[in-house]
């Protein structure tokens, strides 16, 4: 057998080809990795700015919302919350709604110099167009700085109220805190206050007991005064009711008497008209019969004739069940 002498040129070309393929594959892999690293995402509840770590600067031209974009190598998104940002100062050390407290209760004082602890929470939101300025002014620690400013404003506000307001008018205290915090945030216009909840006011126990005793005494005084007013009103009601009943009785008696008088007057007038009518018709009858002009009849005979006529008419029309002659009357006419 004869051994063939290897071709050194072909071996070198194959080796170069292999190295070139490996380099191309390596560059492709590196390109894919670098391209992947050049993309970044922004969530649905976030705002974002592009941060260039090469130049240590943030672009101010555009604010991104919910996107996946090509930002380039050494560049990434700096995100900010789009939803409400809760800030809470409370006495409990655990979490509420899955969020830890931003600090303990606010140790402050009243206008009288009395120490108090304020338990509250609030919600703020970012002003979108001022996010670049916020990052350049406060950097990545903007929430801590906002919390410190809110804390200072709450302390300054409580110092303007006397101690009794913390017991008697907490609604006024809460509305004033809300207004002061809103005005403070509007100065920089980085945030907008959505709401503030004043949960409780904690005072030293001896002082709180003294205040409660004072409030209870005031309530007892008010209760006594209200009871006296109720008694006075009840007495006035009874007096007014008695006067009304007396007036009603007088009015009823007067109306009854007036009604009776009017009935009697009407009856008398009706009887008078009836008698006048009877007399007028009896006169007509006497004239028709000629009793007034008959010279042969005396006055008693004329009267007896008219009386007989009246008696006979009454005998025909009366409603009695029986009739009898009365003893002692010679004529139908009764003279009194």
Brief synopsis:
The protein has helices at residues 8-37, 131-138, 142-158, 165-168, 170-188, 205-289, 299-317; strands spanning 39-52, 57-58, 64-70, 75-81, 85-89, 95-96, 99-100, 106-109, 115-126, 191-202. The protein is α+β, with helices and mostly antiparallel strands and 336 residues long. The strands form 3 sheets. Strands 1, 2, 3 and 4 form a 4-stranded antiparallel beta sheet that branches. Strands 5, 8, 9 and 10 form a 4-stranded antiparallel beta sheet that branches.
Topology readout:
Layout: H1 8-37, E1 39-52, E2 57-58, E3 64-70, E4 75-81, E5 85-89, E6 95-96, E7 99-100, E8 106-109, E9 115-126, H2 131-138, H3 142-158, H4 165-168, H5 170-188, E10 191-202, H6 205-289, H7 299-317
Antiparallel strand pairs: 1-2, 1-3, 1-4, 5-9, 6-7, 8-9, 9-10
Helix pairs in contact: 3-5
């Amino acid at each position: 057998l004869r051994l063939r002498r290897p071709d050194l040129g072909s071996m070198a070309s194959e080796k170069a080809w292999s190295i070139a393929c490996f380099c191309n594959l390596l560059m492709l892999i590196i390109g894919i990795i670098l391209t992947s690293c050049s993309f970044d995402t922004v969530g649905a509840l976030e705002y974002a700015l592009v941060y260039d770590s090469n130049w240590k600067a943030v672009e101010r031209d555009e604010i991104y919302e919910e996107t996946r974009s090509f930002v380039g190598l050494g560049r990434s998104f700096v995100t900010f919350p789009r939803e409400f940002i809760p800030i809470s100062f409370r006495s409990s050390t655990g979490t509420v709604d899955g969020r830890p407290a931003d600090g303990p209760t606010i140790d402050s004082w009243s206008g009288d110099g009395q120490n108090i602890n304020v338990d509250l929470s609030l919600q703020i939101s970012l002003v979108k167009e001022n996010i670049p300025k916020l990052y350049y002014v406060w950097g990545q620690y903007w929430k801590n700085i906002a919390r410190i400013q809110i804390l200072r404003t709450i302390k300054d506000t409580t110092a303007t109220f006397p101690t009794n307001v913390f017991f008697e008018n907490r609604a006024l205290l809460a509305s004033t805190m809300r207004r002061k915090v809103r005005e403070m945030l509007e100065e920089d216009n980085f945030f907008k206050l959505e709401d503030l909840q004043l949960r409780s006011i904690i005072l030293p126990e001896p002082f709180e007991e003294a205040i409660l005793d004072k409030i209870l005494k005031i309530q007892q005084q008010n209760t006594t005064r209200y009871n006296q007013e109720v008694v006075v009103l009840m007495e006035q009601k009874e007096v007014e009711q008695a006067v009304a009943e007396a007036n009603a009785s007088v009015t009823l008696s007067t109306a009854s008497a007036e009604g009776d008088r009017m009935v009697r007057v009407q009856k008398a007038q009706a009887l008078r008209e009836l008698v006048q009518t009877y007399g007028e018709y009896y006169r007509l009858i006497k004239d028709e019969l000629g009793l007034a002009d008959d010279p042969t009849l005396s006055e008693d005979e004329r009267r007896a004739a008219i009386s007989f006529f009246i008696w006979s008419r009454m005998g025909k029309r009366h409603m009695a069940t029986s009739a009898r002659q009365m003893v002692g009357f010679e004529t139908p006419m009764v003279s009194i």
